Description:
Helix content: 25-40%
Enzyme class: transferase
EC number: 2.1.1.-
Radius of gyration: 21 Å
Strand content: 15-25%
Strand order of the largest sheet: 8-7-6-9-10-13-12
GO molecular function, one term: methyltransferase activity
Keywords: Methyltransferase, Transferase
Bound molecules: ligand DWN, zinc ion
Largest sheet: 7 strands, mixed
InterPro entries: Methyltransf_Zn-bd_dom_put, Methyltransf_Zn-bd_dom_put_sf, MeTrfase_14, SAM-dependent_MTases_sf
Shape: globular
Distance between the termini: 42 Å
CATH topology of the largest domain: Rossmann fold
Amino acid sequence: xxxxxxxxxxxxxxxxxxxxxxxxxxxxxxxxxxxxxxxxxxxxxxxxxxxxxxxxxxxxxxxxxxxxxxxxxxxxxxxxxxxxxxxxxxxxxxxxxxxxxxxxxxxxxxxxxxxxxxxxxxxxxxxxxxxxxxxxxxxxxxxxxxxxxxxxxxxxxxxxxxxxxxxxxxxxxxxxxxxxxxxxxxxxxxxxxxxxxxxxxxxxxxxxxxxxxxxxxxxxxxxxxxxxxxxxxxxxxxxxxxxxxxxxxxxxxxxxxxxxxxxxxxxxxxxxxxxxxxxxxxxxxxxxxxxxxxxxxxxxxxxxxxxxxxxxxxxxxxxxxxxxxxxxxxxxxxxxxxxxxxxxxxxxxxxxxxxxxxxxxxxxxxxxxxxxxxxxxxxxxxxxxxxxxxxxxxxxxxxxxxxxxxxxxxxxxxxx
Length: 416
Ligand code: DWN
Ligand code: ZN
């Protein structure tokens, strides 16, 4: 069910710089039914490989436990939808994918991204181990294999559908322990000029913006471009382009292609690698300073919320993201401080957040209960949410935006 990480999954070395320990915590995505017994706790410690600078959890919880019945449905927020569309547009206009070309997505969730590729005339196959989500994707006409993206699965897709012009993995590559198996599968599936596009939360953003709540058991790896560049290179895949994207707290989309592919390598790749070195990612101080800031910010968030509640205010959570569970646990906040959480995901409504057992309700129900403060657990959508909830602010409500530092947003101070 849980195993320690000794050897680095990227380079194989066993030489770690310990960065942070959250103790034994509950699985952030393990929303519970009221009748459920409390879930199990697992060690949540993160360290950096001194050889390749992968930041990694030091323990792996079995993927069967984490992903085979998954409650996260790709967000339909404007931010995510816009980003998904840009990826399709770029794949056709920028990467030359043509009508009838095959796009295979690992971690394809309910098929929202692949449905957009279908609208652009591309053939698609999804691969996702979450049976409940794969079933929903197949329902909507996005063929999806309910399994992990292994080499064997990739070979089967190639046998049935031919080679792929693109293999895409958005916000799932950081969840995968055997990254070499995935890359081996991708290289067998891709055409000679094919594109592997991998989107992950960006380690530089995580460190710079104190995003400690992104550290939970689903996220095994926290990648820099440098580590991905080395990892892909070991599989004969050349990184030829990289995007930054304002999703999930700040992500990168790394585009790679077989070494001999005619696709030219853009200068931004070398520039970002140099920037990472300049920020000290190959050193140790940047991680120590991050850890010190996290200890301070965790305490400040907890003290702020406890102080408001002690003063008679009611505080509720806005959004019930997995990272919200991680944040509440890390800040020692529970049902005594946070009365409920709202969330647009129907799968989450009526359930309880792991550990704190804070009830999740619909946004409508939550707004009707008129809390004095919403703790913005889905802070990565702050701009969109604050704009949407202007009425709550104008009626005197306030948001507590916890990351990168806790700040209170009112109708008078709103800048988003
Ligand atoms: O890597 C992962 C990312 C991509 O998604 C997964 N491990 C799990 C998941 O992480 P998360 O749950 O922190 O993702 P989100 O997208 O930040 O979750 C936002 C939550 O907030 C969703 O449950 C939807 C909800 N929400 C809401 O209630 N009202 C979101 C918006 C925009 C809103 O207006
Ligand atoms: Zn390593």
